[in-house]
């Protein structure tokens, strides 16, 4: 929009609320008339009455979005919360999925045209905050937060300073009602015992057994770090610190806390100091059954207390993710087939996705296709489906290599467009870009994923492979080892071992290359594609008998496979690939 000249506009301080309807284009594509009717009803029955009751002014509507001006930031936030809660309630047809909004609120200087339209940085920041908000969520600037803190009984999450396009200064951002995945409401605003779709967790304050005040701060710091790190997982619903710290010093059962906060999982722990040494314990509990899913203890010394805090956070978060994932898979398996929804289907698909075996890949694709029929906009299902298709390319299962490459990238990009702040989705896109050999873009995606979640074992795994493909084996080994430290029992751990083996091959350490890949094959004996890189390692290490046996095993699972097929599937550099090819020739694989 072109700005009018200054003499036609008046300046004033105002709270600006910007909102839009999530997935508007997709809704219009599926049912244009129905969507337009629902939006008209939404404006007339929900938006306009609540704006009026909170003394706001509807400035304008723009397609699926609208802009509102308030004199009071408190009124703006109250209105936003009521709008989100009203919109989330079923409206219209009983089978229609509730609409969702993203909302951004800023307090700033605005300019007002004669016709009532508004513009300026105060408006621009609100629009940027709205784009940052998750579906069902609200993001507000630090200026708004300073005006409403202590006046409203909501649990806000501090997201720190954020930089936005065309906004000169960084903006401090606070969020609440983070809908869908990481909704963060205070307990009194959520029905007791309600569960969001997907895994939900509360991290309780760790108990200070030492009774020394400095250990109290240390324990609280660890909990805050863990909450912040878990909040990066967009597939987790994480209760905000303000809510869990309300239980500090109270003796309440995990089952009761689970009911009150509406979560499936609770992490609890303790801190004990003895002289210069500190011991931290942590355990993950299924709140519905009281069963312990995972437990660990960590020892360190007072002098290294901050390093210890970082190590514990990384280790706990790295262990929690696969533990919860395993529990969720089991939960989905216990459900009757007729009761499965899209989330359950994805959980059932996960073990098959990570198996990296041909038959498992087909079953994963079948389950994910069913999930996407139920929910075409389910970004996790989209990303996993893209990765399943990518596996066909990488592991020589594809019947149409070029089509599978195109579809892998298309589906991964579509998921990332809908979930651009989800580190897992970005990691899938990074993996897809390595398949199409767009290494610069892949690097950008993986770096972004790791900045959002530095404890993502899979992102470190994919970064390791990317460095292998770019002839950087020493960094590749570091990244694979970091992935293994973060999640040593992860189903993808064997893939890290293969990656380390390939890194040693690239560095011409053929004996080590063979040893690491043998270790992976022992863990996953049915993954015959390992022989594509194991056989040349044997050959160039001088053990042609083992190399020929390895190729024989490869051909059993891939009848008719040729050297050209493997060269086309793998993404190593020309120099490294020429050595892999030479080793396969020596081992007897036909051209």
TrEMBL record:
Matching SUPFAM superfamilies: Nucleotide cyclase, TPR-like
Protein name as annotated: Guanylate cyclase domain-containing protein
Signal peptide limits: none
Guanylate cyclase domain: residues covered: 15-130
Gene3D superfamilies: Nucleotide cyclase, Tetratricopeptide repeat domain, TolB, N-terminal domain
TPR repeat coordinates: 423-456, 457-490
Domain of life assignment: Bacteria
Keyword Signal: no
UniProt keyword terms in alphabetical order: TPR repeat
Pfam families assigned to the protein according to its UniProt record, in alphabetical order: Guanylate_cyc (PF00211)
PROSITE patterns linked: GUANYLATE_CYCLASE_2, TPR
């Amino acid at each position: 929009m072109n700005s009018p000249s200054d003499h036609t506009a008046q300046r004033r301080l105002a709270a600006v609320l910007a909102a839009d309807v999530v997935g508007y284009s997709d809704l219009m594509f599926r049912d244009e008339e129905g969507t337009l009717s629902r939006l008209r009803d939404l404006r007339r029955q929900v938006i306009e009455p609540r704006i009026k009751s909170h003394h706001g002014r509807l400035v304008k509507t723009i397609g699926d979005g609208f802009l509102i001006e308030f004199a009071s930031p408190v009124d703006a936030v109250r209105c936003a919360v009521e709008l989100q809660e009203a919109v989330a309630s079923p409206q219209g047809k009983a089978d229609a999925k509730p609409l969702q909004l993203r909302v951004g609120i800023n307090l700033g200087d605005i300019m007002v045209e004669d016709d009532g339209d508004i513009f300026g940085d105060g408006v621009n920041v609100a629009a940027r905050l709205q784009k940052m908000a998750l579906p069902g969520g609200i993001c507000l600037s630090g200026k708004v937060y300073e005006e409403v803190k202590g006046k409203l009984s909501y649990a806000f999450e501090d997201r720190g300073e954020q930089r936005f396009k065309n906004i000169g200064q960084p903006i401090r951002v606070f969020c609440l009602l983070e809908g869908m995945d990481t909704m963060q409401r205070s307990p009194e605003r959520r029905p007791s015992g309600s569960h969001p779709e997907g895994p939900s967790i509360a991290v309780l304050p760790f108990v200070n057994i030492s009774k020394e005040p400095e250990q109290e701060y240390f324990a609280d710091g660890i909990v805050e770090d863990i909450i912040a790190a878990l909040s990066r997982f967009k597939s987790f619903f994480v209760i905000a610190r303000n809510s869990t710290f309300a239980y500090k010093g109270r003796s309440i059962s995990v089952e009761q806390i689970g009911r009150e906060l509406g979560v499936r999982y609770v992490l609890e722990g303790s801190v004990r100091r003895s002289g210069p040494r500190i011991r931290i314990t942590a355990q993950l509990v299924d709140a519905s059954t009281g069963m312990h899913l995972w437990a660990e203890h960590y020892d360190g010394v007072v002098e290294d207390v901050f390093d210890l805090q970082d190590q514990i956070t990384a280790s706990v978060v790295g262990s929690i993710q696969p533990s919860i994932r395993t529990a969720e898979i089991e939960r989905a398996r216990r459900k009757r087939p007729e009761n499965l929804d899209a989330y359950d289907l994805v959980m059932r698909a996960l073990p098959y996705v990570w198996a990296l075996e041909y038959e498992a890949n087909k079953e994963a694709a079948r389950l994910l296709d069913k999930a996407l029929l139920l929910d075409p906009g389910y970004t996790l299902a989209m990303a996993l489906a893209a990765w399943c298709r990518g596996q066909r390319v990488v592991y020589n299962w594809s019947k149409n290599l070029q089509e599978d490459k195109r579809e892998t990238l298309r589906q991964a990009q579509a998921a990332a467009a809908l979930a651009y702040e989800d580190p897992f989705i970005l990691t899938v896109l990074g993996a897809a870009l390595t398949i199409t050999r767009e290494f610069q873009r892949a690097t950008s995606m993986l770096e972004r994923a790791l900045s959002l979640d530095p404890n993502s074992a899979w992102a470190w795994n994919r970064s390791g492979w990317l460095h292998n493909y770019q002839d950087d084996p020493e960094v590749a080994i570091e990244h694979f080892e970091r992935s293994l430290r973060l999640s040593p029992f992860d189903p993808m751990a064997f893939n890290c071992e293969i990656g380390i083996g390939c890194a040693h091959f690239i560095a011409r350490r053929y004996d080590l290359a063979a040893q690491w890949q043998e270790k992976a094959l022992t863990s996953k004996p049915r993954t015959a594609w390992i022989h594509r890189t194991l056989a040349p390692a044997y050959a160039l290490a001088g053990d042609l008998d083992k190399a020929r046996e390895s190729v024989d095993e490869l051909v059993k699972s891939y009848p008719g496979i040729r050297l050209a097929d493997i060269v086309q599937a793998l993404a190593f550099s020309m120099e490294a690939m020429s050595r892999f090819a030479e080793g396969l020739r020596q081992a007897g694989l036909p051209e």
